[in-house]
Amino acid sequence: MEFLQRYSELLACISFLMPLISGWMFFRKLSRELKLFIFILGITFILEYTGYYTSAHDIHNLVIYNLLYIFQFYFYSLLFRKLLPSNFSKWFIRIIAALFTIYIGFRIKSVVFPNNTYNSYIPAFLSLSIILYCILYFNHQLGNMQTTFIYKTPWFWIMTGILLYFSGSFLILLVTNYFMFRANEYINDLWTLLFLFDIIKNILIGAGFLFLSNKQWNKSF
Amino acid sequence: MEQIILIGVGGMLLFAIGVIAFVVVHQRRVIQYQINLQKLKEEQQKLLLQATIESEEKERQRIAGDLHDEVGASLSTIRLYLLQAGKKQTLEQAEAVTVAAKEILDDVVAKVRQISHRLSPEMLMKFGLKDALQNAAQKLKASEGIEVDFTSPEEISRFQPERELAAYRIIQEIMGNMLKHASATKVAIHLMERHNDLIIKVEDNGKGFSQDSFEKLKSIPGGLGLKNIQSRVDILQANINFTSNTVAQQGTMMTLKVPLFKTEDTQ
Q1: Cβ atoms A52, A10 nearer than 8 A
Q2: Do A186 and A5 contact (CB within 8 A), yes or no?
Q3: What residue of A is the nearest CA neighbor of B15?
Q4: What 3 state SS string does B169-210 have?
Q5: Of A170, A178, A189, the CB nearest to B12
Q6: SS3 B107
Q7: B41 CA: distance to closest CA in chain A (Å)
Q8: Residues in A touching B27 (Cβ below 8 Å)
Q9: Residue A177 exposed, middle or buried by CB count within 10 Å (0-12, 13-18, 19+)
Q10: What's the average model confidence in pLDDT over B240-260?
Q11: For residue B203, which phi and psi values (nearest 5 degrees)?
């Protein structure tokens, strides 16, 4: 357990390399959406690693995580907007993005200069939005009779990883502020759990990219 | 507090797993449904093919029967007459036998023409579907004493001969069924052209025959005629529809919509 607590963040950072490398191997074959996803993963990796490095050197790093959540929110919204063709989905994403922007606008000071307060609502909002986007995506796939073997497509595994990660992290991120400043003894356990979800997500995404080597691979992925 | 959070996290994870499991199970059901549908289609195709083969065999047997009973017998008689003519003492006797042989020969010629016409209607080949159907309607009126109304525009586009023949055979089968099963006393045949389709409507006042009955009967063993209709409809890439007065169970309207050009020609 102690090993996990000590190295989970580093392992989570390293686990990003698996989908990044496998994605890079097939980069030319990737659709625009998958390239965008690789870009999101790449930036997430850089910011997470920076977060890990700064925390290891006791440097104040809350602003890095705030930036990471804001970046993830907008780019995942853009990705799902491209993936979901229905007008309802597009409007839904627009409304969610507008609400998020308004909230960030009101809290801009605490986002850029967080001092010692961790704004839990930003990652919680991000997680909840992405859970809803994933449900919309799966709902779209259910109505799409052309995709017969959904679990043989990279997107199925990517969405599974994302949905599991954000579902698992939603509550943890929501209560991080409380645990960080009021019940500090538990915070490491929760972070460890969060990093484990991160590792599972990256393994699933990496596995999804392996389907790109399939001979029957087509551009619609 | 930590325990509550862990239970919450577990609940959220279960929810996510539930969503994913639902998607996978649903997809499997869709695949199973598609496989079943494919099997059903293949079975239907098999039945249609079998019906076509049976029908061809039946047609061959009928032609063989016609040739044997009508043409063959008559030709044998002519041969006997001609042999007799050679043995007759007087010219008058020989002439009388020759005249009798000529009469039978004329009959044979008419019979051969009739068989040939049944195989490939001359009117259809020369003048097209409109005239052939009009001719068939007239014959129906004359032979069965049924009131037949035929309407059509002055000109109807002609299309490939084999497609015209298939459409003609469908209408022929429908009219045959009307006589055999519907006991109709009034029939109306309408031809019209809409955009790139030829629409043929056949109405009667006999016993009702619905689309459901057509679908049911063509998918069970037997029902050769209906299977032939379906097979020709498929060849033509056409649409066939039967409507009937469901309350009174009387009168049927058949609509056949035939594209004037094959799909690949139009593309």
Answers
A1: yes
A2: no
A3: A167
A4: HHHHHHHHHHHHHHCCCEEEEEEEEECCEEEEEEEEEEECCC
A5: A170
A6: helix
A7: 18
A8: 141-142, 147-151
A9: middle
A10: 83
A11: -115, 145
Burial A121-145 (b: 16+ CB within 10 A, else e): ebbbbbbbbbbebbbbbbbbbeeee
Per-residue tokens: B117: 């016409």
Residue B22: in which H helix or E strand, if any? Answer: helix B2-66
Rg (alpha carbons) of chain A, rounded to whole number: 18
Residue B157 φ then ψ, to 5°: -60, 140
* Contact (Cβ atoms closer than 8 angstroms) between residue B178 and residue B162: no
Whole-number pLDDT of residue A144: 73
- In this structure, what are the phi and psi dihedrals at residue B254, rounded to the nearest 5 degrees? -105, 130
Report chain B's terminal Cα–Cα distance, integer Å: 68
Q: What is the pLDDT of residues B219-235, one digit of tens each?
A: 777 677 888 888 888 88
Cα–Cα distance measured from residue B139 to residue B130, given in angstroms and rounded to the nearest whole number: 14
Q: How many CB atoms lie within 10 A of CB B180?
A: 9
For chain B, give every domain's residue range: 1-119, 122-259
Does the domain at residues B122-259 carry the CATH identifier 3.30.1050.10?
no
Does ipTM top 0.90? no
Handedness of CA B133, B135, B137, B140 (dihedral sign): negative
* Confidence category of residue A145, pLDDT binned at 50, 70, 90: low
Asked if A186 and B34 come within 8 Å (Cβ–Cβ), the reply is: no
Give the C-alpha separation, A47 to B6, whole Å. Answer: 27
Query: What's the gap in Å between the CA of A204 and the closest CA on chain B?
Result: 13
List phi, psi (to 5°) of B193. -115, 130
Three-state secondary structure of B232-266: HHHHHCCEEEEEEECCCCEEEEEEEEEECCCHHHH
C-alpha B202, offset from chain centre? 13
